[in-house]
Amino acid sequence: MLTKLVDAADLSPGDVVLEVGPGTGTMTEELLERGCRVVACELDHGLADLIEDRLGDSIQLIRGDCLHKRHLNEEVASVLGDQPWKLVSNLPYQIASPLIVDLLANHPSCIGEFVTIQLEVAQRLMAKVNSSAWGVLSILTQRLAEVSMIAKVPPTCFWPPPKITSACVSIVRCSHFPPEESASFATFVTQLFTKRRKQLGAILGRDLQLPDGISPSARPSTLTIEQLEELWKQCS
Questions:
Q1: Is 2-176's fold the same as 180-235's?
Q2: How big is the chain by its Cα radius of gyration, in Å?
Q3: What are the pLDDT digits (tens) for 207-219?
Q4: 180-235 maps to CATH 1.10.8.100
Q5: Hey, what long-range contacts does 91-98 have (CB within 8 A, 24 or more apart)?
Q6: Do strands 16-20 and 85-90 pair parallel, antiparallel, or not at all (unpaired)?
Q7: Cα of 76 vs its chain's centroid, Å
Q8: How far apart are CA 197 and CA 179, in angstroms?
Q9: What is the distance between the alpha carbons of residues 214 and 197, in angstroms, rounded to a whole number?
Q10: Is the Cβ–Cβ distance between 64 and 34 less than 8 Å?
Q11: What percent of the chain has a predicted confidence (pLDDT) above 70?
């Protein structure tokens, strides 16, 4: 499974890779064997010591949380710089969604994310419009990237085995918007989807002139990304 994930990242010698939560370094070694420059961020002090003992100066190890208030740690961002880089990680489940969205919205140098996450989160990332899983995460991700499944990962692939199934996914950037625009759009979509079962007329007011093709009786979950962008611009 590690090989499938790293293969999907299409890495070449000299490529810069961010690995979040390297654990005991199994994937890190795979990345190094392919000639990558690895920046590894590890929160757990014991595992960070283990990584340092095993791999020494062959990687750049950053001790601490990769996120600060749902945004990439400034030290990590500074080390990565403006050069193109990719995220290749078995992500800690609790940070997966905010990290994926933050990298897409605010870090254009991150050209791809190849990660192992909860299957449920992967399904939300790939959800289609007018489905129960179509929501803020699906919209913010698909607005900026192409998302595809690499493989499902059974619990037996991990030690200790979790109680859930995981998935390896590919998230390849296809567009970029200014951070302030991304933030404004994200806020608008989040506010809409807090009332996803209500009609747009009830949420936004019956007097608002809606874009062509969007009915006041429509619900947020029935709108495509293009329609949401039109609605956001109309309401701005």
A1: no
A2: 19
A3: 889 999 999 999 9
A4: yes
A5: 91/20, 91/21, 91/115, 91/116, 91/117, 92/20, 92/21, 92/43, 93/117, 93/118, 93/121, 95/20, 95/66, 95/67, 96/121, 97/121, 97/137, 98/67, 98/70
A6: parallel
A7: 16
A8: 29
A9: 16
A10: no
A11: 100
Residue type, 216: P
- Give the separation between CA 236 and CA 14, rounded to whole angstroms: 43
What ranges do the domains of the chain cover? 2-176, 180-235
DSSP state of 69: T
Please count the residues of the chain. 236
**For residue 236, what pLDDT band results from cuts at 50, 70 and 90?**
confident
Please spell the DSSP secondary structure of 130-175, one letter per residue.
TSTT-SHHHHHHHTTEEEEEEEEE-GGGSSSPPSS-EEEEEEEE--
The CATH superfamily of 2-176 is Vaccinia Virus protein VP39 (3.40.50.150)
